[in-house]
Write a structure and sequence with these properties.
165 residues; alpha+beta; 6-stranded antiparallel beta sheet; 4-stranded antiparallel beta sheet; 1 helix
């Protein structure tokens, strides 16, 4: 008959050591993954707001604008076709924060009632992320008829090129 009284102290120490090594390795990987995730979440949120504002401008036949100022932006809507009166866009009455990241470009993106974006050729780069663990999406390219997410090369360089994905 086999002796089944439990495990030895050495077996228990080996199992605990393996679990400890896995926890340390996965902990560092998790921290890097969270850093990338936070940047990509910010880029996707700005992209979604730009796309939604474009859709609403065409549906409601009223121009929309997105004001960018460093670590914050706000979606606004014109109350007349001449763009002489503005109000916070429905659903976007508060200023959105990008903290701890920033978009160094300051200005207003205007989307007219046909869905055309101006200024054409602007790149919105999210800065402040770690170059040792680069995210997949770090910038948004604004064309007159397209809005694309992409990544910046060289990494984290505000003067670098944004390559659409």
């Amino acid at each position: 008959m086999a002796d089944n009284r439990g495990m030895t102290l050495i077996e228990l120490l080996i199992v605990v050591s393996i679990i400890g090594i896995l926890v340390v390795v996965l902990g560092f990987e998790y921290a890097g993954w969270m850093g990338r995730y936070k940047v990509e979440t910010q880029v996707r949120a700005v992209y979604a707001d730009l796309s939604d504002a474009r859709l609403r401008a065409m549906q409601q036949n009223m121009p929309y604008g997105i004001n960018f100022a460093g670590d914050r932006y706000q979606v606004i809507r014109a109350t007349d076709e001449a763009w002489t009166s503005f109000t916070g866009a429905p659903g976007w009455t508060t200023v959105k924060m990008l903290s701890p990241y920033q978009i160094p470009w300051t200005g207003m993106v205007v989307i007219n009632t046909r869905g055309l974006v101006s200024p054409d050729g602007v790149t919105l780069r999210v800065t402040g992320w770690s170059t040792s663990n680069p995210p997949d999406y770090t910038c948004i390219l604004l064309g007159q008829t397209k809005i694309n997410m992409g990544w910046t090369t060289p990494q984290n360089d505000i003067s670098g090129q944004c390559i659409a994905k």
